[in-house]
Design a protein that fits this description.
The complex is a heterodimer of chains A (564) and B (236). Chain A has 3 domains: 194 residues, no CATH class; 189 residues, no CATH class; 97 residues, no CATH class. Chain A is 41% helix and 14% strand. Chain A is built from 22 helices and 11 strands. Chain A has a 9-stranded mixed β-sheet with strand order 1-2-3-4-5-6-7-11-10, sandwiched between helices. In chain A, a hairpin with a 4-residue loop joins strand 2 and strand 3. In chain A, helix 12 packs antiparallel against helix 13 and helix 14 runs antiparallel to helix 15. The longest helix of chain A has 25 residues. Chain A is globular, with a radius of gyration of 24 Å. In chain A, 52% of the residues are buried. With 236 residues, chain B is α+β, with helices and mostly antiparallel strands. Chain B has one domain. In chain B, strands 2, 3, 4, 5, 6, 7, 8, 9 and 10 form a 9-stranded mixed β-sheet that branches. A two-stranded antiparallel ribbon of chain B has the order 1-11. In chain B, strand 6 and strand 7 form a beta hairpin. Chain B is globular and about 70 Å long. The model of chain B has no long low-confidence stretch (mean pLDDT 94). The chains are: A alpha+beta (564), B alpha+beta (236). Chains A and B meet through helix 7, strand 9, helix 20 and helix 21 of A and strand 1, helix 1, helix 2, helix 4 and helix 5 of B.
Amino acid sequence: MKNIQLRPPKQVMRLERMGSRFQTRLSFMRQVLRRLREEEWTIQQVQADWDDNGYGTAVYQAKGPNSTYSLIAYTDYLDDADRSDRVIAEKWDATFTLFDGIPTQADIERLRENVPKQEAGRCSVKELSMSRANKSVRLFEHVVDSLANGRQPDMASIIETGYLMRTTAVYGNGKFGMSDRDRICGRDEVVAPYQAEFLSVYLTRCLTHDLVEHVARQRNPDKFVPLDRDIRRYLGIGNSTGLGMAPFLYHHPVLINNWIMAMEKALATVRGIIQPTSHQKAEFKRLVAQAAIMSSEWNVADQRQMQRIVTLREDIKRLNLQLSESGWLGDDYPWDMVYCWSEDSLSVEAQELIASLLIEVHPTEVDHLSSTMGTIDTLCVRVKPAMTMAELKELIESRYGWALKIDFNQPEETHFFWYVSEEKLEPRIGERETEAGADREQLLTAARDVSALYADIQSVDAKQNVALFLLANPKHRHMVRRIQALSQYPYAEIQENLLGSELLPIDMLRFKLAFFGATKFDPKSDRWTRINLYQGAPLPDELGEPDSDRWILLPCAPQRGGVR
Amino acid sequence: MIVSLAEINAMAKRATLGCGHFWGITEEMAYAIPWLCARGFDATSELVNALENHQESEYEIIERAAELQLMNHERMPLPALTLAPSAADLLVVNRVPAKAVTMSLCSNPLLLLPFLAQVAVTSGEAVSLIYATQKGDFTVINFEGDDLWVYSASKKILTVAQGQQVSLNWGISKTDIPLLYSPEQFRAKYRETIAGGCHLDGNIWKKLQTFAHNAYVPSSAESRMSGAGAGLLDND
């Protein structure tokens, strides 16, 4: 193997690239599935008290070697006028909580009074996550109608939407009275980030499949046919995501560093492999072919993303051609050649797709990195008071040079401000010149704040320590702490001005969603996107099969090759 | 009511921000208040008291052979709410030769504890905090590694609103004041809090919510339409 350098932060931490990422086998959803398979978990519906319309209560249990978790689901009638994916919604088609253990009837009744209210309800330490979902009304009804009339749903409709319900928020870690992460963090199955949350999402997907069949069966028991297994597998669970993810990235920089570090180490490791096996080469070629199908099924209304998809399709063709004509796969270090060629020749989106594909075919070399992706809380660290101002200045110049080049006297560089609305504390972004609320700006301001700090320290004695500086200048405390705390974490800071007029928040959303394991990014504006989770993932009774997750990275419809 | 430490963290940050304090201080309180709550202290009440009564005070730094004094003017107490992190910073930079950091009068001295605890952990050395009530009843708290020993005649003395003769010191402070809380008690309380959540006075929580509300931007039709992600209706 040769030692391939990690890609530098100035390349990796730009929003264009962050907003071009794809799922990898290190994504958190994939980690959940691997554990379910390797530890032979069982997934079971243990209660489904649904009426003919599918309204009622259901419980799904996931049983592992050491623990049992139960998804308690409440499904209710929802007027169309109330169906909103926004945080400000107050009613949903379905609400869920992941219960730690096996709930008693009293637990289910207690939670029936609270979970459907979501943010307005209270949970207890027995609950690990709380979420909600709305139906994709047209597809849900189409599938019900089809199955009730003895036929399978139309594949074009299935491909167009890809899920029966979409979640609109999945809360965890102590919110609304739920268990603090510290209570469960000693358990192997939740060491990696978001494992409880994505277990709940997997169980939610199972519920949507069962629910649509239940309603269809009740509508016409004589003609009802069950959902075809391949279609069922192709149906993931949707998600609608807004701006809330952007502040999360800013406020958990060490966590973000660890996610990216794992991914970058994985890519560098794979690029450094001298000669992959023939199986790995064949698998890569299969994935490239599958990527072509997936991208052909990936159609969105958003013009910017659709143009990128069109380019991606062309890039995949060029990659295919290059693989056949170059003879690289017979040479040493073929993956490094493929990746370097992509940097020179293809779009950023294609480069990131290739990175995901390369990592995908080397589980032995990369899967262990998933254990490095968690962290303790990030910014609860002490300022280093003994650091001199000269040292601080040097640190700023070496790590924030990109920010010091921005002229914050230009109005376009502070065009936006981030804020929290009093309406259900929804995170929002406003235009400073025209909208009220900039005096209550949230802290996505590293570029601007480091510039202000840098200006203020110019006149301070270089030998003075940070303790005395902050005593006299408490307004800089947050930025000094951030700079010091992140000095050992190269991928912690997004190297962009998050206030500038050119900002596209959607890039931050896609970045985080890719690490979750999302596919089929479907931006609805530059501020929110829909995605698919667990599309193509094994069904509960398929979890134990080898290669059961081979369709997840690039889900394809059954008639297009997605049949197992 | 029962709340999680994560909720206390978020609320402490928002309430402090809503009262107009700098971001650096809001982050410090977001650390300090759950730290105290997890160990059984009524820190949310302490924070409400500190926020309601907050007054910045003028002071000057007097340096002596074994002491760095933050000398307040006109007998106005120095607020631990905003000065506790800096007081701990000053202790750290005065390790060799060792100097105590002192304040003759300091409001909400309980808020100093989490920052001394950080110094003990990060420096690997013992530190102590001493303060007294106006009547001269002393509290001594020794920190070593993750452990702390609280010597005080009563909880009331420990949570005095204004501490007199406050000193942050390197090393253990010997005392004949009875032990009020041992490290074992704190560890047990921490385990209890993690396992069952934190029991708080609902009225105190409401006060914090009121403070926090000032950090939020009032809603408007324009903000609702353009400020966030996702449509207002999603029937599809």
